[in-house]
């Protein structure tokens, strides 16, 4: 029925995105002012700022997936990763800056879930930008109160005998989950294993892909 | 394994930039690990040099945090709490 209530959809069937031509918010104005002052006063150049943005955009969950896959295949590396997440990532050559990383490991009996209730702390220097839902008030408030319901909504219903450990990134540390290595991957290379590791599996809201 | 060290999060409610979540104030947990030192964010948020503080990862049971409303009482929640927010139990 071509004319039924579809005025909000484009001819290709997608919702129209509202124009974002409303005035800048206070903080957007502040960001532009500070950035322009840094350039005017010679503290940074526009090229340096763009290079930092490019470096942040280049980081992606694929970097974390390499770390997880290495931990699955190299028990000594896994131990170093659990002891000091930042040093282990640097050892693999990742430029994670000042990131203080703690890696927490899922097992048959323990499931870890990461949240930041106070703002939206995320290991961006390893995994890149966080998903939008991670920053939502709903996820931030519910993950600490009813993590099992939240996980079920993500498609993971955990058995009663699995312990849930929620980690609230309240201060200086950032967290990454090492999901359990799936069965049926014996003898796989690190690169092939890394292809199974999803962003959400490193936050604790998703599973790795099945081989 | 040595016995766990139990600590209580202080119930104070000072104004300003605080990184101790309100939902954990007054709750008792045990120290999961010791971190730091890190600069005090309550000073750094205002452009002041932060006093160096020990940061603790404290583990709470969901029963302690949410009482009867806990989904599964023995599940746990870990948070990072600066030393000046903790008192011995």
Q: What is the count of distinct domains of chain A? A: 2
CATH domain topology of the largest domain in chain A: Nitrile Hydratase, Chain A
Bin the helical content of chain A.
40-55%
What is the CATH class designation of chain B?
Mainly Beta
The name of the CATH topology of chain B is: SH3 type barrels
Class based on secondary structure composition and strand pairing of chain B:
mainly beta
Q: Estimate the helix proportion of chain B, in percent.
A: 10-25%
Strand order of the largest sheet of chain B: 4-3-2-1-5
Radius of gyration of chain B, Cα only, in angstroms? 14 Å
Task: Determine the CATH superfamily of the largest domain in chain A.
Answer: Nitrile hydratase alpha /Thiocyanate hydrolase gamma
Number of domains of chain B: 1
Q: Work out the largest interface and the residue count of each chain.
A: A-B, 22 and 24 residues
Largest sheet of chain A: 2 strands, parallel
CATH architecture of chain B: Roll
The class by helix and strand makeup of chain A works out as: alpha/beta
């Amino acid at each position: 029925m071509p004319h039924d209530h579809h005025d909000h959809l484009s001819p290709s069937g997608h919702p129209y995105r509202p124009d974002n031509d409303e005035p800048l918010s206070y903080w957007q104005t502040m960001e532009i002012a500070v950035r322009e002052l840094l350039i005017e006063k010679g503290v940074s150049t526009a090229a340096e700022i763009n290079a930092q943005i490019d470096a942040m955009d280049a980081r992606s969950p694929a970097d974390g997936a390499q770390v997880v896959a290495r931990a699955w295949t190299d028990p000594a590396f896994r131990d170093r990763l659990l002891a000091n997440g930042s040093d282990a990532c640097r050892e693999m050559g990742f430029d994670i800056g000042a990131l203080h990383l703690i890696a927490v490991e899922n097992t048959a009996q323990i499931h870890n879930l990461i949240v930041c209730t106070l703002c939206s702390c995320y290991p961006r220097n390893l995994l890149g930008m966080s998903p939008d839902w991670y920053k939502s008030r709903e996820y931030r408030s519910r993950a600490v109160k009813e993590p099992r319901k939240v996980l079920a909504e993500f498609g993971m219903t955990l058995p009663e005998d699995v312990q849930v450990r929620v980690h609230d990134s309240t201060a200086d540390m950032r967290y990454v989950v090492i999901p359990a290595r799936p069965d049926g991957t014996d003898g796989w290379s690190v690169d092939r294993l890394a292809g199974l590791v999803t962003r959400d599996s490193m936050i604790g809201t998703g599973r790795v892909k099945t081989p | 394994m040595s016995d766990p060290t139990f600590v209580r999060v202080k119930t104070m409610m000072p104004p300003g930039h605080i990184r101790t979540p309100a939902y954990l104030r007054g709750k008792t947990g045990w120290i999961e690990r010791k971190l730091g030192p890190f600069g005090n964010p309550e000073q750094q948020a205002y452009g002041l040099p932060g006093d160096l503080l020990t940061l603790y990862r404290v583990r709470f049971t969901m029963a302690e945090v949410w009482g009867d409303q806990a989904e599964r009482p023995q599940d746990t929640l870990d948070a990072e709490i600066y030393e000046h927010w903790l008192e011995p139990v």
